[in-house]
Task: inverse folding
């Protein structure tokens, strides 16, 4: 095989790497993505919205105002060191609280790619699959 063919073969092999990494990320082999859902399950006046402000050390997801039963969704990526952390500040009806909505070390296995949060009058509830809800934070 001459050097021109060898070069083309190497170039073709390297062109496949990004697509393989992309596939691996979705398959939880290298960098896993988890979906985080925060639902406003607060009662009362529908005009009183839940203010949600989530971020990690590098990315600010912005301030969201959720009406009753409205859902805020974002994706969190787990890196190789498992140090990712998204935290949120919540405000509603004169109350304010902070919660860790996604922690790679805590949530990598317990979420099964879907971390679900329900915001209620007495706190923030977590569920793995919408069947059992456990309160993890209080206002």
Result:
């Amino acid at each position: 095989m001459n050097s021109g063919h060898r070069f083309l073969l190497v170039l073709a092999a390297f062109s496949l790497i990004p697509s393989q990494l992309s596939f691996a990320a979705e398959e939880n082999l290298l960098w896993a993505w988890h979906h985080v859902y925060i639902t406003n399950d607060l009662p009362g006046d529908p005009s009183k919205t839940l203010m949600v402000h989530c971020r990690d050390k590098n990315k600010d997801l912005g301030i969201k105002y959720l009406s009753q039963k409205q859902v805020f969704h974002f994706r969190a990526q787990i890196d190789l060191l498992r140090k990712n952390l998204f935290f949120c500040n919540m405000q509603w009806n004169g109350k304010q609280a902070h919660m860790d909505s996604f922690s790679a070390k805590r949530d990598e296995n317990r979420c099964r790619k879907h971390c679900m949060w329900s915001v209620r009058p007495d706190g923030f509830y977590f569920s793995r699959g919408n069947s059992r809800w456990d309160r993890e934070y209080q206002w």
